[in-house]
Hints:
With 367 residues, this protein is α/β, with parallel strands linked by helices. The protein folds into three domains: 1-59 and 273-367, no CATH class; 63-68 and 131-212 and 223-253, no CATH class; 70-118, no CATH class. 43% of the residues lie in helices and 19% in strands. The protein has a seven-stranded parallel beta sheet with strand order 1-6-7-8-9-10-11. A four-stranded antiparallel beta sheet has the order 2-3-4-5.
Amino acid sequence: MTSRARMMAAFRIETSDHFPMHVRGIHAWDQRWCESRHSSYRPIIEAVREYGDYEVSFSLGGGRFLTDASLETESEREETGDWVIDRTTIRTPAGPLTAVRKNSTCGLPGLEVEYIVKTLADLEKALSVPYEPVRPDLNGFFELNERIGANGIVMCSIPTPIYQLARLTGSDRLAIWSITDRERITEMVEVFLQRTLDMLDYAIEGGVGPIFASSGEEFMTPPLAGPKDFREFVVRPGIAIRKRLQKAGMLRHIHCNGPLNDILEDFVELGANCLHPVEGPPLGDVPFEDAKRRIGDHVCLEGNIQIGDLYHDQTDVLAQKVRQTIEVGAPGGGFILCPTASPHTEELTALTVKNYLAMIETALEMR
């Protein structure tokens, strides 16, 4: 059975020769990416090439506002030792919007210093940006699909309305406005929903598929927001996306970190065919066996090896966690072994490399 057939069977909760293993964040299929990594990544890359099942994303783009409209933009850069500070100003018809981001020169993750929308007046400026339907070149999807071939699947990433809004406001401000200015949040979600549906229709009509992926639902999950907020700002618009996908015979992958206990069944209503990463305590609140019992008949569970454990656990402890996850997830199908996140450091320690290889070796032993 090929990796692609195995992954598709997992998404459809069908039987296969064995469960798939996707090592998230290791782009072993991309030679340029591989060559850009520190040498400590090499053993993991080689193991993934030999034993992994690829799960690759293709983005439709669309930028901050999901529009192809041309906007006047000014950029400034300041170098301050370990950080480069980038200031971007976008000239909208209703006035300027400015964002500031710090990017590390030492291989650390970057961070937003100022989000582009800081006030309700800024929301009006965002709404004033002209809308031109996003029409990306879809040839990249078909080229990538051919390149991956039988070694895995290529998923087309579509924007989640609440994620698009969070990109503008930041998670803290969005959480506050979901209490103080719900009507404005609803208005922006609807704007982005219609733009998302347009992009989705364009991709489907262009022959893209059969798997579409979304992320960012976590910006409206506990503790940032409650179940009522999730259902209003994620599930309600998400049902429209689900209907478009199901009508076209497409499948849906959703990535959503965090505590999902109070909203787990909502992912069935969203039409998720696969949910990643389904985190247990302490970072999440849904034990893997509980998730399997509650939604495993409807949703493929992809996970749930914590990235922090791969970095810091003793190897025998890590291997035991992998065994437990497989013992729970594999029976009955609908399971993909996968870390909860990508490796996030420029160089990997010897322990981290050893743990990644132990995860792969344990999976091979239990197939």
